[in-house]
Amino acid sequence: MGPHPAVAAIRLAVRRVLHDILDEHTRNAAEHTRNPGEHGRPPGGPGEPGRIPDAPREREPSPLVLVACSGGADSMALASALAFEAPRLGVRAGGVTVDHGLQAGSDLRAAEVTLRLRGLGLDPVESVAVTVGRDGGPEAAARDARYGALDAAAERYGAAAVLLGHTRDDQAETVLLGLARGSGIRSLSGMAAVSGAAGRYRRPFLRLDRQTARKACMAQSLPVWDDPHNTDPAYTRSRLRHEGLPALEKALGKGVVEALARTAQLSRDDADALDAWAGRAEAGVRDADGRLECAGLHALPPAVRRRVLRRAAIDAGAPAGSLFARHIEEIDRLITGWRGQGAINLPGRVVARRQGGRLVIRQG
Description:
This protein has helices at 5-34, 73-89, 106-119, 138-157, 168-181, 185-188, 210-219, 236-252, 256-284, 294-298, 302-315, 325-336; strands spanning 64-68, 92-99, 125-129, 161-163, 194-195, 201-202, 292-293, 344-346, 350-355, 358-363. By secondary structure, it is an alpha/beta fold. Strands 3-2-1-4-6-5 form a six-stranded mixed beta sheet, with helices on both faces. A four-stranded antiparallel beta sheet has the order 7-10-9-8. It is globular. The relative contact order is 0.10.
């Protein structure tokens, strides 16, 4: 008799991601062998002075994959699947839990999570305490602190990847939040299955619903912790989860979550194609001094032109998370609706102005 269907589903999702990580690890190792760089063979051929005999090549260590675990059902299901699949594929597996310090007893809860992760056989395992700031609101500040801690842990242990337990339900919520911001198709693309520097973050559960993860925990008798922030109406995502999405399903019928997740993937494909187009177009609208030519920008399709403008603003120092559609529209009017208007102030003390047929975007 095989595992519970929910357990089988989460293991399959993790197994697929681990196969991808192993394939990338093998390709990188092969590339390093072909191009060892400064650590490769010293100058001089056989019999030449100064040549050091080849040393036996050390076997490439197996990749380490970490799971980010809060102790909730999604991440505990992910941790259990990683603990089961990793040894069968020759992958080392560890875990990290982040203590945000936002609730009484959070340090004790983090300690409990580390014990559970070690009980699953994960190693290394650690709890990282962070200080949550205020920039961007409580949810954004906590997210920034969390990813900062995960990035540091991945660097510290030399991890090939960090697995995150975001589900299809989380994806649907992200799409709706992007829609509410009115930030364009990129916001509607939700969370990527692979993201971060060098593809560090992997989300195996984006095609699985939250209930599947919870059932998998129940089937394996895994204790889980339900974060009270997830039901606190003070948080936007919590209101969306418990009020907004149920209202949409009541009005439109079941299947809203699945439809929003499909929208995310379709939007991501379109956004990726447009971003690539904008990257190629940008080189053609910059003059010898690197300034943007307004005439060349005006000739571009609006969707491409606005991507060029957004990229230029970010390169100048505007924080991507604070740069909204209205900011880009104001810059765009310097191109398409020029009436001698003054400079546009952007987040990060970045200023955009039109000068002699050129668009100048820089700090100060």
